[in-house]
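User: structure tokens for this one?
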Amino acid sequence: MLPAAKLPDNAPFPPDLISALNRVITQSSSAQRNWLSGFLAGLEAATGTPATAAPPAKRQELTILFATESGNAEALANRAKRDATKLGFAPKLLDAADATPEALAKASTLLVIASTWGEGEAPQRAAPFLKALLAPEAPRLEGVRFAVLALGDRAYTQFCETGRAIDERLAALGATRVADRIDCDLDYESPANSWLGGTLPVLRTEKPGETSVIHVDFGQPASAEYSKANPFRAEITGLVNLNSSRSAKQTLHVELSLAGSGLTYEPGDAIGIQPQNDPALAEAILDAAGLAGDATVHAALVERHDITTLTGHLVTSYANLLGDKALAAKATDKEYLAGRQVIDLLAEHPNRLSAEQLLGLLRPLPPRLYSVASSQKATPDEAHLLVGAVRYRTHGRDRAGVASTWVADRRRAGDTVPIYVKPNAHFRLPGDGTAPIIMVGPGTGVAPFRAFMQERDATEAKGRNWLFFGDQHYTHDFLYQLEWQDLLSRGVLTRLDVAFSRDQDAKRYVQHRMLAHAADLYAWLEEGAHFYVCGDQSRMARDVHAALRLIIANGAGISPEKAEERLDAMKRQGRYQLDVY
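Assistant:
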């Protein structure tokens, strides 16, 4: 039974017949509706007077432009496309990596969904488009109607900067804003879906020759699937520290059972883990807020709220509670925010809070994403992760990564963790198994390349494979060393170059190994190699990019600017892919 499936009010029947038909539709089964559909069709055929087919209605065009880094904006764009189709649009998805300002000038109606990466940066694939949109020679956009949905992270001061920049630039170029921009934090799903539900009808306009076509979905509701909102409780079947006992690091190889879940993934995808906070930190926050011993609030802090990240928004909210203007001024002070957490704010500016006030300050506890370190062709009912335990000290306090130390310190084999698959369509092996690939993955950044090699091994792909790996010490930190050596001996891995930064006086990193083999690397690129980078975005990925630009400039005898253009072209072709954080 589908009581929600009813005829729209503009169906071609008088109100009393609409009411009667709705009673029939909502009280009938799928099989009964199918029989009725066939009966009416047969009746028309038997009378020999089939109804004249109406000319197809012209649907209103809608361009949905998305700028994505981890896939959230793209997923929302696909959701918007489905909803827009039901409202009578003819929607078209446009990746900012493939977009130009000139293309936008031809779009009468535009919906933009844009993520911000790091400190106000555009997603890497979208950076050339944003640069062109902000350029003085960008075309005028009169006649374009638009609305912008921005995604970001309040932990960064340039919150939702990419969406803001696009929104303001479209208006400056003469486009008409038909809905106010919404800026969404990590818990974006609910506000984003509400905004889309209110904005899409506003974007809908009736024009001569266009007809509203209402899509009515009579299909059965889909069965529940595991997702971010409904994670699967995966059993930990293996938990091994890959570093030696003398290492300064703790890097865990984690094996998760997917048996019975139906979950599938591709090499390059990520697994989201919904972690729990450290109970001791939750208790410290309760003490600082004057709520010590409140078991209900303690459970909420451990399981549901982000109790580590100190954002400017949180500082502002807390300062308003206290009426402290001096504290409010620190909300935009990067030096103050750097290295501090929620406990520091409460301890430095003590005030007794109610449970509602404390929880109202905190955002939901976000999941953490880890690159899959396995191929399902090699491990059909498992997913492997590489988790580096994060521990450090700032402002006189010891700190710990929420998910990494939850796994390292408070999970054991046999325990379960809530997980879901986060696809990453823009970090994929080439479809051509004979294409060569070059992989740069220091530290835990090597995880997806283990999956790549398992996949190519299982499918007997003939393409050459070159890995650059780096860490601190050869003896203590060579992650998956025996596996790489086995792949080398069997010819699956063609080349392996390593850089261990602290085994000599001068630190040596993966970009140095790239430059040492510049001629060979350039030759591989000229032969069509795909280039992949996974790991730290702020330093490693930038240094690797600079080295790659220099290698291309020297190899081709061109300027660094021309080499950068070649790298942009490689990105558009899918031959230069990054999974950075």
